[in-house]
Amino acid sequence: MQRALVYANLSLLILFPVAWFAPLMRAGLLPLFGLSEISVVTGLQSLWGTDILLALVVTTLAIFLPYLKTIGLALVHFGLLADRTLPVLAWLGKFAMADVFLIALYIVVFKSMGLGRVETAWGLYLFTACILASILISGLTARDGLHGTPDKSKR
Question: How many structural domains are present in the chain?
Answer without folding.
Answer: 1
